[in-house]
Design goal:
- This protein has about 200 residues and is mainly alpha-helical.
- Helices cover about 80% and strands about 0% of the residues.
- The protein has 8 helices and no strands.
- Helix 2 runs antiparallel to helix 8, helix 3 (about 65-80) packs parallel to helix 6 and helix 5 packs antiparallel against helix 6 (about 135-160).
- The longest helix has about 35 residues, at about 5-35.
- It is elongated and about 75 Å long.
- The two termini are about 45 Å apart.
Amino acid sequence: MPMSRRLMTIISAYTCLVLFVLQIAVVMGSWVASVLYPELAIRSMFVGESVRWFWSTLADNMSSTILVWLLLSGAMTELFVGGGLSKAIVSYKQTTDYERMALMVVAWELVAMFIVLFLLAFVPHAVLLSALGTITPNSYLDSFVIMLILGVCIMSLTYGMVTGRYTSFVDAYGAAASGVATTAPLVIVYLLAAELYCSVVWVFT
């Protein structure tokens, strides 16, 4: 296991331990506070209502747009680095003529993506505009992040295939899957953090 991945696993493991302890503290603390300070209207996690809430909303609490971003970011990073696009951008002067030709193709793809983004959001009756003709911040942000991630993936795939780093679709798919796998420690951290946040909101709301 590479040192950076090992370090991320260690940090994620201890972070998960802290989150788990905090979750137990919220459960126990809510019970103690509801008994000692009933006037505060704090929900106890041991009552039937809270137990039903916990198990019935567990999956919903953990699933969100951020989780999708996290998984896709892993694939994007692996394709961007493994395909050689990141190195070519950083060390442009050391690239070969063939690699520069691949960068030119990527540059045209980037221009095309900017045009598509402009047409989707900044022209009258654009798809991403609301019924009132304005941009809704939340929906636009969600759309923009996904388009950014997918755009980098497409450009990285193009560069990797043109330069021969990815000789087949299977190679590219394997790289993307490997990138998703690297996010596994962070996914577990996110799942525990999301449930902890929702539990705190439930207890004090």
